[in-house]
Design goal:
The structure is a single chain. The longest helix has 20 residues, at 92-111. The two termini are 32 Å apart. The chain has helices spanning 92-111, 139-151, 163-168, and strands spanning 3-4, 14-23, 26-29, 31-32, 46-49, 55-63, 69-73, 85-90, 116-121, 126-130, 156-162, 186-192, 196-199, 214-221, 227-233. It has 238 residues and is an alpha+beta fold. It contains three helices and 15 strands. Strands 2-3-7-6-5-8 form a six-stranded antiparallel β-barrel. A four-stranded antiparallel beta sheet has the order 9-10-15-14, with helices on one face. A three-stranded antiparallel beta sheet has the order 11-12-13. Helix 1 (92-111) crosses helix 2.
């Protein structure tokens, strides 16, 4: 199992690590700051700095088996040897943008009180799909409420909930298509003051004031039970 440093510190941009094994073009470390693709959030990219000072580009990160995190290296790169020491460095500006979008999507969950049927984020936009009538989605109203919650600079806290308690409170799971992982006893949660509270394994900001200014760029129907709200952040400085 890879120690996932991002779970408790999403602001950690680098860490020292040891190569456990190499599988084709994928490197497994004993610990990492790289977030693997999941929950609609893309995996991190960045570099592994080898002991001779050379850099290996990481072009994607994904979950492997038994809790391993797989770092996919760029084609043709020289792979580090198992047992060697490396420094893992994420592309921090990109990660920070994704953290801003992910936190903004939690606010969107609070603003649109409907079941979430899907979602995805990228470096320049993010969206959630809701099981709701189009008549209940007004871009100006959503945008104003998002802006108010972001400007309120609310604390964003990482916690955990016992699986048994989560089973007794199914309303906390907002996403209909993705269920939180189980089998560890506890499930990681994200709480934004008294605005939003739900299981989530992604990386987030410490406060909503870091989000910036969310803007609704489009609302459209993606089917009978999927109404997509897409947001962008107008001030994407990192």
């Amino acid at each position: 199992m890879t120690q996932a440093m991002f779970r408790n510190d999403a602001y950690a941009a680098r860490c020292e690590a040891t190569v456990l094994r190499v599988d084709g073009d994928r490197v497994v470390l004993d610990r990492t700051v790289f977030y693997p693709t999941g929950g609609g959030q893309p995996g991190d990219i960045g570099q592994l700095i080898l002991d001779d000072g050379s850099a290996v580009a990481i072009v994607d990160t994904a979950w492997g088996e038994a809790g391993e995190i797989l770092h996919r290296v760029d084609a043709g790169a020289t792979l580090p040897a198992p047992g060697s020491a490396v420094e893992a460095r994420i592309d921090w500006p990109r990660r920070y943008r994704l953290m801003r979008y992910h936190t903004a999507l939690h606010l969107l969950c609070a603003v649109v009180p409907a079941p979430v049927t899907g979602g995805r984020m990228a470096e320049d936009k993010a969206h959630l799909d809701f099981d709701v009538d189009m008549s209940e989605l007004d871009a100006a109203t959503i945008e104003r409420r998002l802006a108010d919650l972001a400007a309120a600079d609310l604390p964003v806290e990482v916690g955990a909930i016992a699986e048994a308690e989560l089973d007794a409170r199914p309303e906390l799971v907002r996403t209909m298509s993705v269920q939180p992982p189980r089998g560890q006893g506890d499930v990681r949660t994200i709480r934004i003051a008294d605005v939003d509270y739900q299981p989530c394994g992604g990386t987030h900001l410490r406060r909503t004031g870091e989000i910036g200014t969310p803007r609704v760029s489009r609302i459209r129907s993606e089917g009978r039970r999927n109404k997509r709200v897409t947001i962008v952040l107008d001030d994407m400085s990192s």
